[in-house]
Amino acid sequence: MMTILPVADGARLLGIHPKTLRHWLKEANMSLAIHPTDARIKCVSEEHLQRVASLHARSLQAPARLNTASPPLVPSQIQPLPVPANRGEPASPACLLPTPHVPDAELTQKLACLESRLDTLQEQIAQFALALLQERERSIEHRITTLESLMQHFMGGQMSNQPVPEVRKEPTCSVPPHRLLHPAEQ
């Protein structure tokens, strides 16, 4: 019984990129098959894989390394695709490449490591932001001091005789007296 595999899995067995496998199949005039449940996925027969492997001096790796999400398909599920006449076949999307299976404990450990690194980075960003604000404040104070000394120099000491207007600060939470309160505010 002949089985078929998604092109991405077949390419993984050969140790090549799916786009390369598609190119090699096209060169050998071998057609692809449509996946029985998802027409977007193109498949290749095991026989075609073996022929391509021998043509390009490649050895097939053991299929145990494949992702179990895409099991081999039986011939009754195969729908052959016509070989395209044009050479401009689109590249296979990278999202078809499954991620290798990693144990949960290892993933949990990696997640904890990433979380601690994220915390460290957040602390560093907060420290940098604080340092930036402090440097801005020092820079502004230095500019103001420089401007005041330049003004005193150009005005010839006249500034010292004039009263400096005081900036009146209102408390931020006070309500102006002329505004009437809403009944809910009373």
Q: What this model shows, in words?
A:
This protein has 186 residues and is mostly helical. The protein has two domains: 4-96, no CATH class; 104-157. The protein is built from four helices and four strands; from the N terminus they run E-H-H-E-E-H-E-H. It has a four-stranded antiparallel sheet with strand order 1-3-2-4. The longest helix is centred in the C-terminal third of the chain and has 52 residues, at 104-155. It starts with a strand and ends in a 31-residue tail after the last helix. Residues 64-98 have low confidence and may be disordered.
Summary of the model, kept short:
By secondary structure, this protein is mainly alpha-helical. About 45% of the residues lie in helices and about 5% in strands.
Low-pLDDT runs: 64-98
Q: Over the alpha carbons, how many angstroms does the gyration radius reach?
A: 36 Å
Classify the beta-strand content into a percent band.
5-15%
Adjacency order of strands in the biggest sheet: 1-3-2-4
Number of strands: 4
Mean pLDDT: 75
Can you tag this structure with a few keywords?
4-stranded antiparallel sheet; 2 domains; mainly alpha; 4 strands
Describe the secondary structure blueprint for this structure:
Elements: E1 4-6, H1 7-14, H2 18-27, E2 33-34, E3 42-45, H3 46-55, E4 79-80, H4 104-155
Antiparallel strand pairs: 1-3, 2-3, 2-4
Helix pairs in contact: 1-2
